[in-house]
Design a protein that fits this description.
The complex is a heterodimer of chains A (90) and B (173). With 90 residues, chain A is mainly α. Chain A is built from 4 helices and no strands. The N and C termini of chain A lie far apart (72 Å). Helix content of chain B is 75%, strand content 0%. In chain B, helix 1 packs across helix 3 and helix 2 packs across helix 3. The longest helix of chain B is centred in the middle third of the chain and has 24 residues. Chain B starts with 13 loop residues before the first helix and ends with a helix. The chains are: A mainly alpha (90), B mainly alpha (173). Chains A and B meet through helix 1, helix 2, helix 3 and helix 4 of A and helix 6, helix 8, helix 9, helix 10 and helix 11 of B.
Chain lengths: 90, 173
């Protein structure tokens, strides 16, 4: 009986990071606003219909984006938001 | 010792004479047979032969202790085998016992983790999607989620960088 309890304890210990990861993964989605969720869904659907070369290009852009320094990313993000707002206002 | 042939008797009475010898015959037949034995020498000698030979054939043999030991072991083994056959399904679980309980514990914890994921926020936020179910790969993978969030910007990334560069060049000039 003692051995069984110890086994269960260690299993729980090994699985706790997984549970945490699962909870965090769910959180990321839940923390999005409905507007952002719509955007993600829309982009996902659009992504599915893209030709393979465009998908490849976007994946490369994503990798390049992640390698950019944080301040440059912030600047580009800001620039993009400005452009988007200008476009929306028109 | 040379085997001596049994005395010839009235053939049709052979069975009755053997039963008579063992005392397993009805009284009326017994009386008739006894009367016959008085008259028939062959049958009388046959009964005498039975008295002489049968006790020798049925001599109780003293069995050695090793026989009884083996007998006991075999009986126990047979009983065990019989019991195992009757409850064969129990044996199916014997090898599992060592890992089944930890596996069960693991499954319970995994189920709990899944439950936490589903119930921590509002369940309705998952089901009340305007168009369709949220793809699992987006919900569970942070990087995927971020990728699809940034897809519009990624498409414009080269242009944005070009704009940044030209601005920097203009400042430098």
């Amino acid at each position: 009986m003692k051995r069984v309890l110890v086994s269960i304890f260690f299993s729980a210990l090994l699985l706790s990071p997984l549970a945490g990861w699962a909870a965090n993964s769910g959180d990321n989605w839940r923390n999005l606003s409905p507007k952002e969720k719509d955007k993600v869904l829309r982009n996902y659907q659009r992504w599915q219909n893209l030709p393979p070369q465009d998908k490849e290009h976007l994946r490369e852009e994503w990798d390049r984006w992640q390698r950019l320094p944080q301040d440059r990313r912030d600047r580009l993000k800001q620039r993009y938001e400005e452009q988007r707002q200008r476009r929306d206002n028109r | 010792m040379a085997a001596k042939k049994l005395e010839t008797m009235c053939k049709e009475l052979e069975e009755d004479l053997v039963l008579y010898y063992y005392g397993e015959i009805a009284d009326e037949e017994k009386r008739w047979l006894e009367q016959h034995l008085g008259d028939c020498g062959g049958c009388g000698r046959f009964i005498e032969d039975l008295h002489r030979l049968l006790p020798q054939m049925a001599l109780p043999e003293e069995l050695p202790q090793s026989f009884w030991d083996n007998y006991y072991r075999e009986t126990v083994a047979k009983l065990r085998h019989q019991r195992e056959q009757k409850f064969y399904w129990r044996n199916l679980f014997v090898p599992m016992r060592t890992w089944m309980i930890p596996a069960f514990g693991t499954a319970v914890i995994a189920a709990l983790a899944f439950g936490v994921v589903l119930s921590k926020g509002s369940l309705s936020s998952l089901y009340n999607q305007p168009q369709e179910r949220i793809p699992k790969e987006i919900v569970t993978d942070t990087e995927q989620l971020e990728f699809f969030r940034s897809l519009d910007m990624l498409e414009a990334l080269s242009g944005l960088e070009g704009l940044e560069t030209s601005k920097a060049d203009a400042h430098a000039a």
